[in-house]
Amino acid sequence: METMFGIAVDGVAYGMILFIISVGLSVTLGLMRVVNLAHGAFAMVGGYVASYAAQEAGLPYAAALVAAVALTVLATLPLERLLYRRIYGSANELAQVLLTIGLTFVIVAGINYLFGPTLKRIPLPELLTGTVELGPKAIPAHRAFVIAAGAATLLGLWWLLERTDFGIRLRAAVDDPAMAAALGIRTERLYLATFALGTGLAALGGVLGAELLPLEPYYAIRYIVLFLAVVAVGGAGSIFGSAAAALALGIVDTAGKYLIPSFGEFFFYAALILILFRWPHGFFKGRTA
Amino acid sequence: MTSVAERDGKGDGKAGRMTGRTPLAARRDLGWIGIPLVAAVGLAAFWLLPDDLALLTRIAASALFVLSLDLVLGYGGIATLGQAAMFGTGAYAAGIVAVNWNNDPFIMLAAGGLAGGLIALTTGALILHARGLTLLMLTIAVGQIVQEVANKARDWTGGSDGLSGIDPAPVLGMFRFDMYGRTSYLFALAVLVVGLLVARRIVRSPFGLACRGVSEDPLRISAIGGSPKSYLVVLYGVAGVFAGMAGALTAVTSGIVGLDSAGFPWSAEALVMLVLGGTGRLYGAVIGTAAFMGIHHILAASDPFHWMGFIGLFLIGIVLFLPGGIASGVERLGGLLRGPSQNNGEDRA
Amino acid sequence: MTRTLRNALLGAAFGLALAAGPAGAATIKVGVVAPFSGPFGVVGKSFKEAIEVYQAEHGKTVGNDTVEFIYKDLDQPNPSQSKALSQELIVKEKVSFLAGYFFTPDALAVAPLIDEANIPCVIFNAATSAITEKSPRYVRTSFTLWQNTVPLAEYMAKQGIKKAVSAVSDYGPGIDGEAAFKTTFEKHGGTVVDTIRMPLKSTDFAPFMQRIKDSGAEAVYAFLPAGPATLAFAKAFNDTGLRAAGIKFFGPGDLTQEPDLPALGDAAMGITTTFNYSRAHDSAMNKAFVAKHKEMFGSVDSVTFTSVGAYDGVHVIYQMIKNGGGKIDGAKAVESVKGMSWESPRGSLTIDPDSRHVTQTIYLRTVEKVDGKLENVEKQAFPKQPDYGYKLAK
């Protein structure tokens, strides 16, 4: 019983980290139909900015987090104008894959050049170190924080996409761009804003998840499969789907590693195949939230 | 809104613009010139670059692998990031056969092709109902599982240390695989050329045309009484034979098989090489492989720290300025040379 | 090519031609295959720097011959590419020695080549015991998992630890480490209560921590590939309260390699490891080595075990050239360094005539802050440790 509880708690904590890093990809893929393999690279850029801000510029954690998200969004917006705008739409999947892989390579090389190949860290504030007792189980304080942040992100996104004017226009533009444009919705600006949302979420995840997925130049390539798995299981574009998928995969992964560690990898991918077999379009097919 | 998977299922051909569908699609493999050209250039390289045969051998074997991906993606419209599962299975099968039973290179090739084909048929039947991102993820998962099996079966595969000690017998009992790599290269080139011939035969056969039909409009195939999925599964299996043979060829020429041969990066690299060269053309696979590996070799020799940045910029440039891959550039050039009446070279090569 | 560069090259060529006056003088080439790009790029960098330090200290010539190093980049474990690159070095560059090799499969791939070409291969790192069994032309100047783990397990048993758990990454070196640990620790009266093999691509280590906790062990022996996995493991060990619960953390020294220490931060404090080299090793020779490195490259951040692996490897190569009087016959060259002993920045070394692997002192170290910088501080030395895994591990 205690073991089950332990697995559940660890699994949820891991799942929330997966959610927070992957949800941005789900947004760009689901709403803008871009297979953005550079998502991991954007997350990494956010992490590096935070690391630099905290270690070199001496900013506190919260300020470094905000700076990371803001600077990453600013730095990637020109990319939307210059590159992504040319490859929107589902007919361009291969072009998207190739272009975003190319972009990832460039970012990896750039980060490697600027910061060197060694691991970088984002120092945590006193408050987030140590452990939090949860009944018989102690979990790292940082993870408790990430769970809370994940829940906040989930609610915030739901509100943004379902309850605001922006969300309504965005969904209209996604469902029928021509009609939306005819109704006076400026789709170009809408897409730019959504792209910014996606990269901002990537940066947020990169910073918050850095304890688990340590920052180094190959971060961008190393974890992209994990992010894609969450989005595929959740259903592209579905915020709640991503959350459910991340939690499910987190729990499956944790259970597999705990119960049969030496077959943990099998367990994860076998579960992935089974899930995708049962729900080929993801848990929540399609809906934006 | 609809999911990505569904949209793709509607059959606007995920390869879409990059493949550039045309009614004369089957003629885009440069007619009868393409394959003799590959053979001639390959032989010329043998004389001109006698010190670089190790690299050329790797290019030839990898080109066969990328060719298998072209069959799947360019002709079946199946987006996959798990083709290395078949390559790795073929390589390990060939290696295990050579170490334990028979080290004749042709038997190794046959074992690799058989193993690659079998794994492709079984996994293909399981996963090919899916489309888009879901399919992409399923192919990745299959690849990871194959790699994990190879890691676990240490007694057979050597695990992460690699399966070493593969010592193929001389070709036809006469030509030894020596360290100068002449035998290796000519053997690999011969297998590649035969592979191209067979592949061309397949894509021009009624079956190949039907597969192309499936990738472009599955509904129509259903309407005329065919099962779209079964076409794709068979195509996937055939491509698996090619990939398995490419793996076996690598085992023959390098004498060792590592876990990397079934890894995700190798699948992704193959995809990059194919799209770089141009999909749906067969010879685009050869061009893309030679270009990518050649550039890598030169850049890695001169500036290993930054080659990744260069290749990244190169990829971006290809997407923006040459969306059909290098091959489409060649074709466009060909079209220009042939006269202004054929202004759209991409449709007729 | 700019004019200055061309002039410089011409000048150099001319200078070389002049310098190469005496008959028989030649350039002896050494091909180095290592990761210079990619996630392990720092390894190639440390190899190259150590080679340059050695050449700065000992000159670029042996007798009348100039020794030249040619580098080939191999970023990931990829044996078929390793073989192709080595083949190119032999056929095109006409090297007399092969050297480097960070990953085991990459080193194993060249066995048939070096036998056919009769070329010695000096391995600077690849640490699986079985490699040197595959060809008589391999010499290795690094370490093996067995070599590091046996003294560690003995030490742990002597500390009075009765129950331990091993947690290793599920791949060749990890399994080697687990076997070495279990065999030795149990021989000295301890019990290994659980052997955990963690998938190589793990990112979340919390479940393993829970398992370690549940096993009731007093100490954990861990081995993971250096880099992100080690960092995440060490962090999880602290964050999940295992350290607070008094469980002791041991492992081979790859875990706390110097370039990773700044990122590991305080999470690494107190981890006890055994290894063949620490940058903080207290000897005149090491101080000189580190100082020279600092002088040439401005920083010592990349100085670590791979540095001495390469440094001593070059020493062996120089010795082989000397012994042959400028003529290189692979088999004879290897024969001539069997049993050779010398002093290195890490201590005294001997090439074991059977295994052609270095017998060396293994140090017990603890991560501590020295002048505000994390270092592996040596606590105890176990001299003359051979490769216990030779002809033992599969």
TrEMBL record, chain A:
**Cellular component terms per the entry's GO annotation:** plasma membrane
The compartments listed are: Cell membrane
Per the record, membrane topology reads:
Multi-pass membrane protein
**In Gene Ontology terms, what is one molecular function of this protein?**
transmembrane transporter activity
Q: Does the keyword Cell membrane apply?
A: yes
Q: Name one GO biological process term.
A: amino acid transport
Superkingdom in the source lineage: Bacteria
Pfam families (UniProt xref): BPD_transp_2
| Record has Metal-binding as a keyword | no
Q: What is this protein called?
A: Amino acid/amide ABC transporter membrane protein 1, HAAT family
Q: Which organism is it from?
A: Azospirillum oryzae
- Lineage in the entry? Bacteria, Pseudomonadati, Pseudomonadota, Alphaproteobacteria, Rhodospirillales
TrEMBL record, chain B:
Q: Where is the composition biased (Basic and acidic residues)?
A: 1-15
The answer on whether this UniProt entry bears the keyword Cell membrane reads yes
> Where is the segment annotated Disordered?
1-20
InterPro entries, from UniProt?
A: ABC_transp_permease, LivM-like
UniProt-annotated location(s): Cell membrane
> What keywords appear on the UniProt entry?
Cell membrane, Membrane, Transmembrane, Transmembrane helix
GO molecular function annotations of the record: branched-chain amino acid transmembrane transporter activity
Give me the Gene Ontology terms describing cellular component. plasma membrane
Topology in the lipid bilayer is annotated as: Multi-pass membrane protein
Any one Pfam family here would be BPD_transp_2
TM regions (residue ranges): 30-49, 80-101, 107-128, 184-203, 233-259, 271-295, 307-330
This protein's record includes keyword Manganese: no
- PANTHER family tied to this protein: ABC TRANSPORTER ATP-BINDING PROTEIN (PTHR30482:SF17), HIGH-AFFINITY BRANCHED-CHAIN AMINO ACID TRANSPORT SYSTEM PERMEASE (PTHR30482)
Q: What is this protein called?
A: Amino acid/amide ABC transporter membrane protein 2, HAAT family
Which organism's genome codes for this protein?
Azospirillum oryzae
TrEMBL record, chain C:
Q: InterPro entries attached here?
A: BCAA_transport, Leu-bd, Peripla_BP_I
Query: Which residue ranges does the record assign to the Leucine-binding protein domain?
Result: 27-368
A GO biological process of this protein is: amino acid transport
Which keywords does this chain's UniProt record carry? Amino-acid transport, Signal, Transport
Signal sequence region: 1-25
CDD domains with a match to the protein in the record: PBP1_RPA0985_benzoate-like
A Pfam family cross-referenced in the UniProt record is: Peripla_BP_6
Has keyword Signal?
yes
**Family recorded in the similarity comment:** Belongs to the leucine-binding protein family.
According to UniProt, the name of this protein is Amino acid/amide ABC transporter substrate-binding protein, HAAT family
Q: Which organism is it from?
A: Azospirillum oryzae
Lineage of origin: Bacteria, Pseudomonadati, Pseudomonadota, Alphaproteobacteria, Rhodospirillales
